[in-house]
Amino acid sequence: MLDAAVRLAGEGGPAAVTVAAVARAVGGPSGSVYHRFAGRPALAAALWNRTVARFQEGWLAAVAAEPVERAAPAAAGHVVAWSRAHDGEARVLLYGAGDFDEASWAPEDRAELRRLNARLGPALRDLAARLGIADVELLTMATIDLPGAVVRRHLRRSSGIPADAEARVSRAAAALLVLETCL
């Protein structure tokens, strides 16, 4: 059901993810969706949180990579590689949790999102310490914002992510960090 929700969101945005649409997509009755999810907010929360968790798994591993000099470029490259390999889920992440009606989610679903998001700061601060730099915001830009912008541009144009995009964002992340240590 969540895979069907990914396809629906990728094709029509968050508003396309409804209980009825998911039921149609899986070829079952709406009741089967309601059996698994209490309603659209629970469905949307499960879709968003699963997608974020899947993305973060590889990103967090890349940030922790050794040698440390490869960690930021690997994390930046992960954003592109994962997005290419998981086009539908990457399209989900073009939106924000608010676009999936986060305000209507159950408290435990919002708590899960906070838990997932809370993993990023410590990982970035640890990488900054390992690199000996103080600018965690620069690491965020290099490993999340820059590659995310590249992915967003190509997914919104439906042009597909170029084969060399991963290498380019990895080099850009490395260059930003070299500049940081030189200035």
From TrEMBL:
UniProt xrefs under PROSITE patterns: HTH_TETR_2
Species in which this protein is naturally found: Dactylosporangium sucinum
Domain of life, source organism: Bacteria
Keyword annotations of the record: DNA-binding
Keyword ATP-binding included in the entry's annotation: no
Ranges annotated as DNA-binding: 18-37
Limits of the HTH tetR-type domain: 1-55
Keyword DNA-binding recorded: yes
Molecular-function annotations in GO: DNA binding
Protein name: Transcriptional regulator, TetR family protein
Any Pfam family the entry gives: TetR_N
